[in-house]
């Protein structure tokens, strides 16, 4: 009966992946829609995932020497215009404040789409000497980019994110930081979100407005689409020159510092949903799951059952995030409910289990049922959580591998693009014309990145046949 | 020599309290100014205080059953207008977005000055039955109120805060929540910020736009001024009626739920500065201090000194926030620097100390020096931190008591208001005319609150001589 209910609840992912996604975010109570253009309400269960993400990532940033700061949310138009490429990239998608209090403003203020310009203005004030470097700052905040079509977590006008902004004495040091933070993201995706990903450099066409180089982490979703999961930019001294940020070096000459920025956002929750979910709903990786274990009492009206459930909770809660559901709904309803919510491990405890000093653990990924002794319940649950993490990453890795194709000819590329959703590895000459052509011909397959590890597939560009410079991973994206 | 330096650094608080405040926030590197109207940059040291405040308060909110959510930062004008008193209170101080992307918007959007209206819109969607109640939500976010005159932390156009918004079945339950959260704030001020405060109810004139009752926590600053340190509002079912939020009750009839909201902000950092600081700079209460102990190596070039300093740090860092300053500046400069930054305890360690297996601890509040054995350094430092907390609260309590006056006649009230900065306890008839008159006559002394514990000072209003209804605490405010 529980099974039937599940099937009713949401669209199957194979039938309509987009509708499945929409169903899941609503049914799992991650978001609600609002009357505000392109903005979402993140409900407690969704926000708790974000809090767990923040806590984990923030510790990684601090362990690598970064400090948090807070900049204003508004950017005067003249400040945004200081760096030419940057304003061209962002001004078209800004929300503009033109009235403050009762008065029309003399200058428009953009709600920050990103904060490079604000950080630069501040850095100009506080950097004078090489002794002031490096500056390793990060900010957790909301940003806004006016979007026409929106989808919860994946593309919303307002979203929550972190943006690291750092300043360094030398180009080498800044480049090293750029790559280091990309690896922090890669590790976080792998170890906390259980999502493997390709990392590499964006092409000129796809890089960030104002950057010299943009690096990206590109996980694959269940349906073969890519999600740009995070980016890390090397700016050289371009912004420093535009904003006149200088410092006196060790050799007593005046120099420009070198800059980076890097960010990930609530979009990661979209990645979790689409990398791990199934037809029963969400599957949240244990490291960021708001509830890691849900305890469902069976025949809870019987004497001792609820007491035992709460005793087990008390034991587990010392190290884990645990909930007992003693509500009036049926156990079948509860099973479906916490499957929908993607709780990694379910613990069932009833009168017979108590007699046997045991309980049942069920993995959300495999559905495997395991009878375990209550004597070492903490170890058993912890082990199953670890197994869930490993199963998730293996499943995602298998999906990535099975949906990554190699194209050595133009025809092959178009055939794969049309018939096989996934990543395509193919050689590229380095010209934007070929990127544009492939995108047009395929209706949206774009270069994801030049991966750090390139295969040599052939000598020539898959599009124009000229000498190839790089292997590129291509794919459709959210 | 260190003493001389300190005197140079900042204006004395007795000479010019306002300038002292400005000097401290800059010299202690809490904030920087920006080119954005009325917005401040919160620097790492200032933001770290906020992070500690958030962590502590958030745990208190969760322990009382609250969940965090995130609402959009923009409010359509029509939504803001749904509750009449509310829009009158806030619309005049909103920043308005009128252009999104390239297009003029058909409806203006306010950057949230507070989020009652957004929560109500959401509650309308998710509350149907008494089973959906209570809803105990909180949000950590930025808000904006267009201010003419600004001062870091105390009054800025943008500030960071938390706003609790809860919905309940009955008026009694909502009223209980309102008072409960005020006490959470009171406990936090006392136990974490070491700031005693008066709590009570705002008069009709001073209550929040749209509330039935507003409660407040009013700590006293060093100079006798009040700071509205946090508020908790009971809304009755007013917003619920305006937003058509209903639920089916236990008796199967349709009812309006009862609502509260409550908030504290980065303004609390202003309270810390002005309640505890002295002519040497900040004093940060240990519970929220970014650095609780700074270790200053003396004669650090001598063999073993830095090693020992770092060994002590490793020991202390297991439970405390510790920094070793091994920079090239003189120890005198360092002493002044960390006094300015308000680090509660300084630990000095030099060659002779190491020979004696001891070190020196210095309290930031009393300047007391204590030679302690390294054998139980964790206990000694922990004990001194506790002593610092107690000394801070005792000092603040003494300041509050010595600057709280009683006025039983109009003349006495005006005399105190003119000559003795502080709080004035005086009887009041309950009429807004008397509040207005006293404010006008004194150039700004306002009712702070009707405290929960009222003294009976006389039978008549200190202003008009009519029968008194309440004892009110009056004072000038930031």
Notable traits:
eleven-stranded mixed β-sheet, alpha+beta, disordered N terminus, 3 domains, Translation Initiation Factor IF3, homodimer, 478 residues, 23 strands, five-stranded mixed β-sheet, BirA Bifunctional Protein, domain 2, Rossmann fold
The two chains with the largest interface, and their residue counts, are:
A-B, 55 and 55 residues
Give the integer mean of the pLDDT values of chain A.
96
Oligomer: homodimer
Query: What is the gyration radius of chain A calculated from CA atoms?
Result: 25 Å
The CATH architecture of the largest domain in chain A: 2-Layer Sandwich
Q: Kindly state the percentage of residues in helix of chain A.
A: 25-40%
**Total domain modules of chain A:** 3
- For the record, the CATH class of the largest domain in chain A is Alpha Beta
CATH superfamily of the largest domain in chain A: Bira Bifunctional Protein, Domain 2
- The CATH topology label of the largest domain in chain A is BirA Bifunctional Protein, domain 2
Ranges of chain A with pLDDT <50 over ≥5 residues?
A: 1-7
Q: Could you give a short account of the major beta sheet of chain A?
A: 11 strands, mixed
Work out the helix count of chain A.
15
Order of strands, widest sheet of chain A: 3-7-8-14-11-10-9-22-23-21-20
What's the end-to-end separation of chain A, in Å? 35 Å
Structural class of chain A, by secondary structure, is alpha+beta
Number of strands of chain A: 23
Outline type of chain A: globular
């Amino acid at each position: 009966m529980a099974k039937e209910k599940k099937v009713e609840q949401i669209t199957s992912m194979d039938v309509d992946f987009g509708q499945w996604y929409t169903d899941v975010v609503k049914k799992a109570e991650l978001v609600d829609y609002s009357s505000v253009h392109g903005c979402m309400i993140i409900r407690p269960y969704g926000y708790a995932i974000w809090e767990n993400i923040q806590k984990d990532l923030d510790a990684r940033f601090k362990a690598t020497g970064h400090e948090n700061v807070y900049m204003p949310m508004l950017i005067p138009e003249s400040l945004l215009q200081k760096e030419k490429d940057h304003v061209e990239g962002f001004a078209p998608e800004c929300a503009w404040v033109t009235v403050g209090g009762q008065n029309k403003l003399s200058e428009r203020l953009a709600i920050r789409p990103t904060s490079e310009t604000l950080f630069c203005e501040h850095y100009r004030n506080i950097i004078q000497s090489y002794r002031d470097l490096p500056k390793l700052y990060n900010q957790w905040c909301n940003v806004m980019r006016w979007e026409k079509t929106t989808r919860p977590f994946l593309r919303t006008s307002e979203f929550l994110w972190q943006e690291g902004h750092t300043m360094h004495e030398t180009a080498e040091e800044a480049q090293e930081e750029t790559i280091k933070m990309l690896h922090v993201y890669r590790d976080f995706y792998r170890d906390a979100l259980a999502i493997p990903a390709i990392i590499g450099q964006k092409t000129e066409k796809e890089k960030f407005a104002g950057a010299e180089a943009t690096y990206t982490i590109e996980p694959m979703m269940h349906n073969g689409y890519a999600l740009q999961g995070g980016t890390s930019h090397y700016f050289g001294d371009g912004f420093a020159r535009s904003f006149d940020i200088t410092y006196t070096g060790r050799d007593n000459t005046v120099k420009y510092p070198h800059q980076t920025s890097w960010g990930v956002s609530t979009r990661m929750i979209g990645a979790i949903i689409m990398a791990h979910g199934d037809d029963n709903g969400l599957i949240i990786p244990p490291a960021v799951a708001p509830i890691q274990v849900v305890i469902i009492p069976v025949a809870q009206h019987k004497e001792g059952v609820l007491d035992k459930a709460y005793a087990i909770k008390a034991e587990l809660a010392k190290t884990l995030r645990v909930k007992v559901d003693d509500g009036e709904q049926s156990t079948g309803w509860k099973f479906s409910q916490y499957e929908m919510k993607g709780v990694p491990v379910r613990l069932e405890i009833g009168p017979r289990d108590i007699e046997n000093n045991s309980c049942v653990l069920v993995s959300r990924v495999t559905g495997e049922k395991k009878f375990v002794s209550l004597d070492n319940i903490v170890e058993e649950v912890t082990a199953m959580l670890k197994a869930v993490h490993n199963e998730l990453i293996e499943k995602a890795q298998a999906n990535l591998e099975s949906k990554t194709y190699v194209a050595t000819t133009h025809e092959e590329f178009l055939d794969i693009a049309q018939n096989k959703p996934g990543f395509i590895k193919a050689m590229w000459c380095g010209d934007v014309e070929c990127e544009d052509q492939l995108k047009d011909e395929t209706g949206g397959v774009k270069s994801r990145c030049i991966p750090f590890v390139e295969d040599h597939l052939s000598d020539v560009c898959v599009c124009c046949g000229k000498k190839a410079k790089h292997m590129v991973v291509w794919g459709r994206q959210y």
